[in-house]
């Protein structure tokens, strides 16, 4: 198994992640984010993330806040968001 890496990691605490990528090229979100099951806040705003949200984000059942605004995402709102029982803010 390859090492777990997050390119552009800005800051990380045991329960929240603020990720800032300084790239003008669109990229797809890493499936590895779904392994961070203790996150309660995930901020990915304005990172030029393209495509659809990966199904692995459905594993983040402790999320209370999810920020993904300012990204050129496509597709439908994924059904796994309904599994986020603690979520209070999606931007």
Overall form: globular
Order of helices and strands: EEEEEEE
Largest sheet: 5 strands, mixed
Task: Give the oligomeric state of the chains in this entry, treating copies of one chain as homo and distinct chains as hetero.
Answer: single chain
Instruction: Summarize model confidence as the mean pLDDT.
Output: 78
Helix content: under 10%
Structural class: mainly beta
CATH architecture verdict: Alpha-Beta Horseshoe
- The CATH C-level name is Alpha Beta
Radius of gyration, in Å, reads 12 Å
| CATH superfamily grouping | Ribonuclease Inhibitor
N→C terminal distance: 33 Å
Describe, in plain words, how this protein is organized in 3D.
Helices cover 0% and strands 22% of the residues. The protein has 91 residues and is mainly β. The chain has a single domain (9-90), classed as Leucine-rich repeat, LRR (right-handed beta-alpha superhelix), CATH 3.80.10. Strand 1 and strand 2 (16-19) form a beta hairpin. It is globular and about 25 Å long. Residues 1-5 have low confidence and may be disordered.
List keywords for this structure.
91 residues; mainly beta; Leucine-rich repeat, LRR (right-handed beta-alpha superhelix); 5-stranded mixed beta sheet; 0% helix; globular; disordered N terminus
Quick synopsis:
With 91 residues, this protein is mainly beta.
Please describe the topology of this protein.
Elements: E1 9-12, E2 16-19, E3 27-28, E4 41-43, E5 49-50, E6 65-67, E7 89-90
Parallel strand pairs: 2-4, 3-5, 4-6, 6-7
Antiparallel strand pairs: 1-2
């Amino acid at each position: 198994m390859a090492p777990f890496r997050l390119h552009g990691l800005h800051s990380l605490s045991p329960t929240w992640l603020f990720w800032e990528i300084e790239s003008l090229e669109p990229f797809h979100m890493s499936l590895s984010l779904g392994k961070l099951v203790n996150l309660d806040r995930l901020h990915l705003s304005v990172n030029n993330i393209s495509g659809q949200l990966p199904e692995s984000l459905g594993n983040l059942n402790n999320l209370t806040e999810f920020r993904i605004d300012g990204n050129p995402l496509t597709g439908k709102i994924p059904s796994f968001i309904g599994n986020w029982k603690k979520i209070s803010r999606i931007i």
